[in-house]
Amino acid sequence: MKRNSLLLTAVVAASVLILTACGEAKGQKSAGGDGETFKPKGNVTMVVPYGAGGGSDMSGRSIAAGLEAVVPGLRINTENRVGGSGAVGYSYFLSKTGDPNYLLPSETALLALPLNTKVAFDYTRFTPIMKVGDDFTLAVVPANSPWTTCADVVNASKSGRVVAGISGVTGLDNVVFTLTEQDTGAKFDRVPFESGEELLAALLGNQIQVASLNPGEVVEQLKAGKLKALCAFSEKRYEYPELKDIPTAKEQGIDVAFAQFRGLIAPGGISDGARKFWIDASRKFIESDKAKQYIASNYLQPNALFGDDFTAYLKENNDMLKKAQGK
Questions:
Q1: Which pLDDT tens digit goes with each residue over 39-63?
Q2: Which domains can be identified in the chain, with CATH numbers?
Q3: Burial class, 31, CB count within 10 angstroms (exposed 0-12 / middle 13-18 / buried 19+)
């Protein structure tokens, strides 16, 4: 009897260990999901795939600060990884697959890079978290430029060389120049820069003749009279007081309107719990004063989407971009 009792005790103890181990494994597999609570371990890193001072950098830093404000104890460091028109930063982010302590402020390059460059990723390799809004661009020239409309630029390109600066070969500005060429028969001589800040400096320094830049990047120069806006590549005129008098390209006979989205992605392969954590935090951010301030100060068109809805938007936008580029 004593021997049987010892054997029974051993079996029960072994069973408890097995069940405990199974429970721990299940909890690890679904950390932060299926009823578990996920929290970032230590500081989170916001990887910006462009240089400091441009639209993507402003987006990343604003979202980071906003998330910190709505999630107690959250700390996010911003890290710029520049090169390859965004490819270096996105490729580095790809290496963080499965790590929920990394975020990236995404934009049109997420879709355009895989269509134009040999990279190891497309949008399906990441986890879409939030779309903040739409960021249309303005065609801008130095204040002393003889051009007063986008139609003037198109006509000039048909009879001579027009040097257009772009922020990376896969950015929104390159897309709108391509769409303008397709719609009008124009031809632009492009010069790529690594960030909107570098592009702006080149325009102010008369190294290029025209650029397509986001309103938030150029509004101060427009107010100061250093630059002038020829048209907006948007569906309708902006309602912001500083931009409401800028006609759309469509008003000038150029049927081009294409928005750069501003959003947030996490690495692919993260747990359901981590995905839910970042989506919930992003929903709180969108409702915050910091989000409203970011949207207004950067002249975005607010249009928030989260999770699956953002994923569907990316697919639709990707298909549209493929069609625009004949792919």
A1: 998 999 999 999 888 889 999 999 9
A2: 44-134+260-324 (3.40.190.150), 138-252 (3.40.190.10)
A3: middle
